[in-house]
Amino acid sequence: MIIQLWHARDSDFQAELYAPLKGSSFFHEHEWILPHDWEEVNSRESLKAVDIFIADVSHPATGLGIELGFASLYSKRILCIYKKWNKVSSSLKYITEDFLEYENQEDMISKIEEYISQNIHTTQKKIYVWCALTHASPEFREEIRGFKDSLRSMCHVLDYTGVIDSGTITAEDIYQHDRWCVIDCDVFVAECSYPSTGLGYEIATAVEHHKKILLIAREDAVVTRMILGIPPEKAEFFRYQTIEQVRTYIQHHYL
User: Fold this and answer.
1) Domain harbouring 104, CATH code
2) Which of 9, 33, 85, 222 sits CB 3.0–4.6 Å from 4 for a disulfide?
């Protein structure tokens, strides 16, 4: 796993955080990003690949708040740690439910190790597949459903609500759920063979949140130039003859 640690710059982080972590039994089992160890870290870029973001919030710091904001924006798993008796900001509860109070360095290392161990299984890549739904044929929907099922053995597939059970799921439910899936996923796959206003909105949301985006379309499909014009550094475009080709491409390039 890739784990990034952040803290107040004016704390004694070398002795209180870096040294105990480097001396732990699990340190070399993972890739760590320690922001002030060797050179300055561009956290806005490094955070995109991080599995867990650990913030020592024992001491208040404006920079730390900015990094927490980036981690939340990128939908990263956030663990806030703090030394016992220290007062921490109540606002932190709005970006994470994971808090760890420690008494000393040994207690801190033990609890971090336990947290990482418990969350290793949750770092499986999350993929969200979206396509035209409202005006799509039942055959097309079934093909996409089978495609998603074929991915489940390799990654965690997030499911949209779409037009399923439209009698009890409201438009507001669909908006909240499906938008969150875009924000929460690691890879957003958009099937663009058929026009869809909702799909366009979700692609824009994925671009806004700096997601890895794979745009796919059948080989003979006519795709709007608005989608084809998305810069390659923001989204990749892949045409296919069979949906199995997409599955293989995702396995080799995104997992």
Assistant:
1) 3.40.50.450
2) 33
